[in-house]
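User: Please fill in residues for this 249-position structure.
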């Protein structure tokens, strides 16, 4: 009987802002945040080093305001929203017993550390969860791109892409098309050529260029974060080595 693979040593978990709002239409559902904190604590028990990038779409999505706001200004507002989410998640993680540090790509010294790569890696080596907020610190880049960039900078073995209420990559929106089929495995080029909504093309191209695998899954499914860290096959794996395979139902 083959031995199970060891859990990943270091991962980056990307959480959408919408995942934090639960069933609401806006803001933070603190019950959901506590649920995520508990799930992250379970995953950390496997010995993994974990960094997190959190989005801000539950408060402010810059692209939705481009008709009435200058794009750069809207993007900076979105970065501030990710800081709010990062602090909420930090609080829940600390209350669950995990030592956590939030680093921001734009200076907000009163509430968080500035992003410093060497300091972030040192935190990870000490077993602390590191939350990266404020995206890349630059307008015109999404938090997906920030997640890919930070994952590469810290040497993460995989980017765990937690989608809101979607358990993988489908050939159509499963919330609108009941017959949509979920893929088990895809290559980067297939995602680009099929125009599948995994992440923005800049982020995906960055992962493809550096051969950083991506696992897309629903982080709110019980045990899913722990299973992803343990290298179990959940959701959809996007990499340069796997053939296309549609999930069986």
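Assistant: Residues filled in for all 249 positions:
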């Amino acid at each position: 009987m083959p031995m199970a693979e060891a859990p990943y040593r270091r991962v980056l978990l990307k959480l959408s802002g919408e995942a934090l709002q639960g069933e609401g239409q806006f803001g933070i559902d603190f019950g959901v945040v506590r649920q995520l904190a508990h799930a992250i604590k379970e995953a950390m028990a496997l010995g993994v080093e974990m960094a997190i990038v959190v989005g801000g779409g539950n408060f402010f999505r810059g692209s939705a305001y481009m008709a009435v706001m200058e794009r750069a200004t809207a993007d900076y507002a979105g970065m501030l929203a990710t800081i709010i989410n990062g602090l909420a998640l930090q609080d829940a993680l600390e209350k669950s017993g995990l030592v956590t540090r939030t680093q921001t790509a734009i200076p907000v010294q009163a509430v968080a550390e500035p992003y410093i790569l060497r300091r972030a890696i040192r935190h990870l080596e000490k077993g602390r969860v590191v939350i990266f907020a404020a995206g890349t610190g630059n307008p015109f880049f999404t938090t997906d791109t920030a997640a890919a960039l930070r994952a590469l900078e810290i040497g993460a073995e995989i980017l765990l892409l937690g989608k809101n209420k979607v358990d993988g990559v489908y050939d159509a929106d499963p919330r609108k098309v009941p017959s949509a089929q979920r893929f088990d495995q895809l290559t980067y080029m297939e995602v680009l050529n099929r125009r599948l909504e995994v992440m923005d093309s800049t982020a995906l191209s960055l992962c493809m260029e550096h051969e950083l695998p991506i696992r897309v899954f629903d982080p709110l499914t019980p045990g899913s974060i722990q299973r992803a860290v343990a290298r179990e096959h959940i959701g959809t794996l996007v990499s340069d080595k796997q053939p296309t395979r549609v999930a069986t139902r």
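For context: Helices lie at 30-44, 71-95, 117-125, 143-154, 188-194, 201-209, 224-229.
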